[in-house]
């Protein structure tokens, strides 16, 4: 992170001695640079690697001349307008819906007992991989899904599954639902982290004392300063949902699918000439996501302009009752949907014969699990290898960056924050597709190493965001004390900061593992389909007909990160069981 | 590099701590000036309203001055100049408002943390036990610091500093978080120990009683003017205690 040194060596004054370079400060000084290279390098190279073939240049496949042919071919693709429309609409709609739910949830439940429940549910729900959640939603809401079984035949009179298209409806409703249930926990988490920064409780209390209703108090006194703090994560959500592949493959329409899914299809087409078009499609996806971001930004301006008078009009009960009602309904609905889909997955994984409309499979057996065991083993092993590899690389860099901030007493600037979010703001399909073309051009063998490095791009930002808060909040006097007792900066890290930050570091590792385990696209593209992880297998199975086996894989994919979180919470407590002050 | 490589050896113990023409600036604004000498066993109290730069002065002496500040002048221990040494090589013991016992270490671990390395494990353990006996906490070595009372923690923090064999002690409002009865006892203990060990000490405080108990000279810091830094009378010289 390009940290800015705030010291300006004044005329005739000397830099004070705390800044002498030791081995440790030199070592961690490299971390920010390495991190920037790791994050910016592949994204830039990937976009360049997509730009070449998009204009006909890819010597490895015989493209030696610049031409506009790939673009002409792309524009001639039937249904391109629907693909683009689907990407933009599902991206913006799911983000708007998720943000509304999160804002109303915070406004309704702030400082209540339900809120503590929601907070407790947050980490496990966050750990659910996108693919598993999408599969769960599909099995829950499909015509023969759990919900319809619960209502039938008593309420609906259906003896056979009704005939409606879900998942895969043409308007993308299923896709939007699937995206929203996963975006809500994420946006809730970043909001919770940002609330103390804008002194939310004090502002709310002040507004309550002035006679504002609770929901109105939050909307008028807290939200205007909260939103700027979560703007980047919101943009990341837009970028993700307008370009996501695995959720769209499972829940989205297929004729035509959203643009990102088409790009992956074209790239995988046995007809190699399709690859040129895939690159043009990848750049178009970049444009589509940027357009979605721009529209959102304009929407922000509009809302800010419209709400200015609303904020100052003195109305104490704006949206007070309606907001509270909607807030509790939508919050519990989105959490309930996710929890119910996971329950459904569990039932499907243990079902043998489960005819419609019975709501409970009988008998429940482990037969499906036994059947899957042989193939589950190797896939689990590869999943773990990739997850551990990328998380370890990322945690070293993240700790290095934060140590560098600590020993040099600087803070990363705005530009550095943007670099951190870069892989989350650029549609992955755009630069990953370019990296594949580069791989082909430079004849780099795709495999586990490229996949691990690719996963780092997505793992590192989340780990940084999770650890930075705890690292920066650690009282600097602990380190000063250690130094005054003769400990060098390196020894202070090993003997003071590392043990005191063990719990947040363990949680950051668990988050890294969860993110890596959930990755679909980088595994598929950078591994050239040769690396089978639980996620790639679950997504592949989801398009087939075997619900039982799909459920087994989705659950396995979900259990691994859950296990990681359990360990991250348990181990530090176990290690410090004799230390009361570290038992939070 | 072990800490002994660049440390003055033990014969430099019990030397005076000098602040030679020390001036701290924030940008072009002077914050604090100090020119004084602290004799072994003497406690010099620095007083003044909050925001006057007392803590900045301490941070400068200990080697933690924030990068935003610029410093002139020197901190010396006897003949050796500390100004350019990193914090960990200065051997200036620090006592904060809070005891700051490391939560991941036992009481004994906290005491051993600051002890110079190299001695046998048995000897270290013995010293820890002895130090605990010294502050009436026999048998507390394996206790979790979180289970100690406020007064017990403050005493352990003091012994941790002394066991690290510092060459001088810096105290940052060391008694302000203690209740009245405890404060009296702690003052007694801290100042007795400092006198016994013959260490020069600089104490930053806003409590008159702290300064009068310390018995040493009192320096009253006053806010320095923003613009004119030239012709003001020198502040920070000794005033009668």
From TrEMBL, chain A:
SUPFAM superfamilies in UniProt: MetI-like (SSF161098)
Question: Domain named ABC transmembrane type-1: which ranges?
Answer: 84-295, 380-571
Looking at the UniProt entry, the stretches that span the membrane are 27-51, 88-109, 121-142, 173-195, 207-227, 276-299, 325-348, 384-403, 415-436, 448-468, 501-521, 551-571
A single Gene Ontology CC annotation of this entry is: plasma membrane
The membrane topology of this protein is: Multi-pass membrane protein
Annotated localization: Cell membrane
Q: Which GO terms describe its biological process?
A: transmembrane transport
Keywords, A to Z, come to: Cell membrane, Membrane, Transmembrane, Transmembrane helix, Transport
Q: Which residues form a coiled coil?
A: none
Q: Which organism is it from?
A: Halomonas cupida
Q: What is this protein called?
A: ABC transporter permease
Q: Which domain of life is it from?
A: Bacteria
Q: Which InterPro entries match?
A: MetI-like, MetI-like_sf
From TrEMBL, chain B:
| UniProt KW Transport keyword | yes
* InterPro entries referenced in this protein's UniProt entry, alphabetically: AAA+_ATPase, ABC_SmlMolc_Importer, ABC_transporter-like_ATP-bd, P-loop_NTPase
Keywords on record: ATP-binding, Nucleotide-binding, Transport
Q: Which SMART domains does this UniProt record tie to the protein?
A: AAA (SM00382)
Q: Which Gene3D superfamilies match?
A: P-loop containing nucleotide triphosphate hydrolases
Does the entry feature the keyword Transmembrane helix, yes or no? no
Q: Out of the domains of life, which is the source?
A: Bacteria
Q: In Gene Ontology terms, what is one molecular function of this protein?
A: ATP hydrolysis activity
Per UniProt, residues of the ABC transporter domain are 12-241
Q: Which PANTHER family match?
A: SPERMIDINE/PUTRESCINE IMPORT ATP-BINDING PROTEIN POTA, SPERMIDINE_PUTRESCINE IMPORT ATP-BINDING PROTEIN POTA
Output this protein's name: Putative thiamine transport system ATP-binding protein
**Which species is this UniProt entry from?**
Halomonas cupida
